[in-house]
Design a protein that fits this description.
heterodimer; A: 409 residues; mainly alpha; Hydantoin permease; B: 134 residues; alpha+beta; SH3 type barrels; four-stranded mixed sheet; 5 helices; 7 strands; globular
């Protein structure tokens, strides 16, 4: 059982990254419009985030430095500050969306309007970030988020034509009636949703807080190589059930309330209840992850004391940042902005901002001065470099595709 | 001293000191090395005499309008008319690895003005601020 909990950090990070509010809706929407023809992007994204998180986890374990420390050390104060604003902006947008996502899950369960839930959710979230032990947070939300396995069960229960699904996945081209530009836009969105900077901020900072050393490397790798593929598999199963149920009848998913419908078809009320529990845990976990990540990045840039392992009064500025962002997020949500729209923009902007966070980690993972004998091997470097090129290409393509397709319409 | 792990005979001040984390005697983060104070030694070579920290040191390095604003806002918020830049004397440095280790703590160095202000007026009034989450 202890082994299971040792994986909690990786599982929570991955659930927050792969099946948070943005991915829940984006995957369902992609499944309903493109079938599984974008499944390869999730696979590419899973490998990419594994490469990125493994490097930053290794750097955190060996040098004791979390990701944003290194961003500033390698980019200098000026470019580092620009990156801080960009990454923090993206993470904050995601944080807003996740609080909205928890509220939307509660709206589906209770029929009470989401805007009424927002202050309640934010207050509960802030209490968790203020008082609840990091371990409890990891275990509760990481493991409860696994309730989303219900989508994989639903897929199996629906008894789809597996060879047709495999055919869609192999085609890697838009189905008839969809253009290449909107296909390209969703490539960027899915890739951006898989490789978000905040996953790495959270994972590496969690590692520093858990006092990883060279001895922890195998646990760290297990976290990466179990957590992220699991997250990727969950997000693929959501795309697959919507491809089976919605694609043939031409229904487009554009709200969270539509996402559990395939589960209802396959498993009935109980399935929907489990799916809603999964939505709640995954979005709440992602809200914790992004909320803390905003604090981590600011505190690490300026060299402040940070973290969940010290009392709030020992890391006053860090906790003040977390509190302030929670209050601001509530203010934004109370304007009745659509959380789904916020999250769709945030994944695209996150693809845009990623190279500036990725490059310093790739450089430091090769620096014997920080890493001693644990520098990147040939394989890690080959993959690391290939992914740097991919990230730059996606980042350059993000904004033009967004404008061309008017946000994927 | 010279054979301590993490103590170098030669270092690149830009690479090994600037923007690194300063860690205090208690193992807790103090601040970032925002700039360096150099002096000319008797033999004509430059040596680092202090690590400079805080917005007063960071602003000029950021440069441009943002840098000037950083410095002037920092000056305005300080009680004294001409506030000194935060300084950690080079003699306090015991070694560098991925961080710069010093023999003092943040409190002893008097570099925690903002932290103390936030602690006193924002964090401590909230119940539960003294409990850790480990």
């Amino acid at each position: 059982m202890k082994k299971v909990f040792a994986l909690a950090l990786g599982i929570l990070t991955a659930i927050g990254g792969f099946v948070d509010i943005g991915d829940l809706v984006t995957n369902a929407l992609v499944g309903s419009r493109f079938g599984l023809s974008l499944a390869w992007v999730v696979a590419v994204g899973v490998v990419g985030i594994c490469v990125f998180a493994e490097m930053s986890g290794r750097v955190a374990a060996i040098s004791g430095r979390a990701t944003f420390d290194l961003v500033r050390e390698r980019l200098g104060p000026r470019l580092g500050f620009a990156n801080l604003l960009a990454s923090m902006g993206v993470t904050f947008l995601t944080f807003i969306a996740e609080i909205g996502g928890v509220a939307l899950s509660l709206e589906i369960a209770t029929s009470v309007n989401e805007v009424l839930w927002v202050p309640v959710v934010a207050a509960a979230l802030w209490i968790v970030l203020w008082r609840v032990k990091f371990e409890v947070l990891e275990n509760a939300f990481g493991l409860a988020g696994l309730a989303l396995v219900v989508f994989a069960v639903a897929l199996w229960k629906l008894g789809p034509d597996w060879s047709a699904l495999w055919g869609q996945a192999r085609s890697a081209a838009p189905p008839p009636g969809e253009s290449w530009t909107s296909y390209g836009y969703y490539v960027v969105a899915l890739f951006g949703a898989a490789m978000t900077p905040y996953e790495v901020f959270f994972f590496s900072s969690g590692g520093v807080e858990e006092k990883w050393t060279a001895k922890s490397l195998s646990t760290m790798r297990l976290n990466v190589f179990v957590g992220f593929p699991l997250g990727g598999a969950l997000s693929l199963s959501i795309a697959a059930v919507t491809a089976v149920v919605f694609l043939p009848v031409g229904v487009q998913v554009n709200s969270l309330a539509q996402v559990p419908i395939p589960v209802a078809v396959a498993l009935g009320k109980v399935g929907v209840a489990v799916a809603l529990l999964g939505f709640f845990a995954a979005t709440f976990g992602a809200a914790c992850e992004t909320g803390l990540s905003v604090g981590y990045s600011v505190a690490q840039f300026f060299g402040w004391r940070w973290g969940k392992f010290v009392a709030p009064r020992q890391a006053a500025r860090f906790h003040a940042v977390v509190l302030l962002s929670t209050v601001l997020a509530v203010a934004v949500l109370l304007t009745t902005v659509d959380p789904i729209a916020v999250t769709e923009y945030s994944v695209v902007f996150s693809a845009l901002a990623l190279p500036l966070t990725y490059l310093p980690i790739l450089v430091i993972a090769n620096d014997p001065d920080y890493m001693g004998g644990s520098v990147n091997g040939r394989f890690a470097n080959a993959l690391g470099t290939v992914y740097f090129v991919v990230i730059v290409v996606v980042s350059v393509a993000a904004i033009p595709l967004m404008i061309l397709t008017k946000g994927g319409q | 001293m010279a054979d301590r792990p993490g103590f170098r005979r030669q270092y690149d001040a830009g690479l090994h000191l600037l923007d690194r984390q300063i860690v205090g005697r208690d193992g807790l983060p103090v601040a970032k090395v925002d700039d360096l104070e150099l002096r000319v030694r008797a033999d004509g070579r430059l040596a680092v005499s202090a690590l400079l920290v805080g917005p007063g040191a960071l602003g000029p390095r950021v440069g441009g309008r943002l840098g000037r604003w950083t410095v002037s806002i920092w000056r305005r918020l300080r009680p004294d008319a001409d506030p000194p830049t935060g300084r950690v004397d080079a003699t306090l440095v015991t070694g560098t690895d991925s961080a710069v280790h010093v023999t003092a703590t943040t409190e002893e160095l008097g570099l925690d003005g903002f932290e103390r202000w936030v602690r006193r007026y924002v964090v401590e009034p909230i119940p539960g601020s003294g409990h850790d989450g480990s």
